[in-house]
Amino acid sequence: MSNTPQKLKHQQVQYLEFLSRDLEKVKTFYTAAFGWVFTDFGPEYTAFEGDFIDGGFTIGEPLKGSILVVLYSQDLEGTRTNVINAGGMISKEIFAFPGGRRFQFLDPDGYELAVWSL
Questions:
Q1: Where are the transmembrane segments (predicted)?
Q2: Is residue 4, in this structure, part of any structural domain at all?
């Protein structure tokens, strides 16, 4: 995990932890969809690093609907394609909202995430 100044913003999300049934499957998905880099810390935990946020996955049963993580994209359609090609399922197609556009998808564990763009 990198603690560069760009990641350490006051009162902003900096680290997220998820439960996963299959760490190898989520690592493959998030690497292909978003280019995240993973570091394993034993057989039951893997940490990820992105440009602006870090987090991790630990073995456990995912709980759908408890939180919606929203990612930002400069190329919404391109990100949507990456999600599909990585094996994600679109749960809400691209739609407009005040301030931008977004879509939502399910990852391999059934977590629903959103991606938005200006």
A1: none
A2: no
The answer to whether position 83 is within a domain reads: yes
Q: How many domains does the chain have?
A: 1
Taking the complete model, does pTM exceed 0.90, yes or no? no
Given a contact cutoff of 8 angstroms between Cβ atoms, the answer to whether 29 and 108 are in contact is yes
Predicted pLDDT of residue 11? 60
- Token digits of residue 72: 């930002």
Q: Is residue 89 part of a domain?
A: yes
DSSP percent split of the chain into helix, strand, coil, nearest 5 = 20, 40, 40
CATH number of domain containing 48: 3.10.180.10
pLDDT in tens, 50-79: 888 889 999 998 887 777 888 999 999 999
* Beta-carbon count within 10 A of 63 CB: 12
Pair of tokens at residue 20: 């996963």
Torsion of CA 66, 62, 16, 97, to 10 degrees: -50
pLDDT in tens, 29-52: 999 999 999 999 999 999 999 888
Residue range of the domain that includes 98: 15-117
